[in-house]
């Protein structure tokens, strides 16, 4: 579905990403982890067509997204770390706004709002409150849901559980598992290693602009016949 092939990106004299390559498949969750400044955000921005690679290609279903960004934009659900909601509107108003932006029919929009509200655990009364009255966890849940209205093939989740309450975290992790079962490809960018171990099929570890690890979770957590934690793998790779 998604192929990142030998991608480079630099800003003036600083190389942000150097020779990054990986693939994502339908129905799989790929975890992208690494310290701040490792190149994660730059890579995500290139996949989302917010930046163009200086070298290399990013292919979506076999087509170069730099040459034709529309091929991925209509199939992408991008959930940034910063909340992208209209806080003066209600949760339902946000659903309606984004449903119209995605050109959904009235019937499909109604159906998807019901499905997604159930998935993130929102009641009708909660949907009718203004977003500015929500807790941080509720905002994050809604932030994810509006990005899923158009049933994207590929979803990018950038730190979806940072700084939230336990209930919201459980709802979000459950929603991610439901998306996987539905066949969605998910790029999960995070710092919480236990979530990556639980959710992901494949792990990418970035450090200093390079991908220093790319393997399945099962292979990654078995070293010399012994089971290790993702934290131990991190330490072995001297990630800091």
From TrEMBL:
- Pfam families, alphabetically? ABC_tran
Q: Which residues form the ABC transporter domain?
A: 2-233
SUPFAM superfamilies cross-referenced by the UniProt entry: P-loop containing nucleoside triphosphate hydrolases
Q: Where does the source fall among the domains of life?
A: Bacteria
The Gene Ontology terms for molecular function here are:
ATP binding; ATP hydrolysis activity
Keywords carried by this UniProt record: ATP-binding, Nucleotide-binding, Transport
- Keyword ATP-binding included in the entry's annotation: yes
Entry keyword annotation includes Transport: yes
- Give the family, as the similarity comment puts it: Belongs to the ABC transporter superfamily.
Protein name as annotated: ABC transporter related
Upper classification of the organism: Bacteria, Bacillati, Bacillota, Clostridia, Lachnospirales
């Amino acid at each position: 579905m998604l192929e990142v092939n030998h991608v480079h990106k630099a800003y003036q004299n600083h190389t942000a990403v150097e020779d990054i390559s990986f693939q994502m498949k339908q129905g799989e969750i790929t975890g992208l982890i690494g310290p701040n400044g490792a190149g994660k955000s730059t890579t995500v921005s290139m996949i989302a067509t917010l930046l163009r690679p200086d070298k290399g290609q990013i292919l979506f279903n076999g087509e170069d997204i730099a040459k034709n960004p529309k091929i991925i934009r209509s199939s992408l659900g991008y959930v940034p770390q910063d909340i992208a909601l209209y806080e003066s509107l209600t949760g339902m108003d946000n659903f309606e706004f984004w449903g119209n932006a995605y050109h959904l029919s009235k019937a499909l929009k109604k159906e998807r709002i019901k499905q997604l509200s159930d998935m993130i655990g929102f009641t009708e009364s909660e949907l009718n409150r203004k977003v500015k009255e929500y807790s941080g966890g509720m905002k994050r849940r809604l932030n994810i849901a509006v990005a899923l209205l158009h049933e994207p093939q590929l979803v990018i989740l950038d730190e979806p559980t940072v700084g939230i309450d336990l209930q919201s975290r459980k709802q979000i992790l459950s929603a991610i598992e439901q998306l996987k079962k539905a066949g969605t490809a998910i790029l999960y960018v995070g710092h919480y290693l236990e979530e990556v171990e639980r959710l992901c099929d494949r792990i990418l570890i970035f450090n200093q602009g390079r991908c220093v690890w790319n393997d399945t979770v099962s292979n990654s957590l078995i070293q010399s016949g012994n089971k290790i934690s993702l934290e131990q793998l991190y330490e072995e790779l001297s990630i800091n």
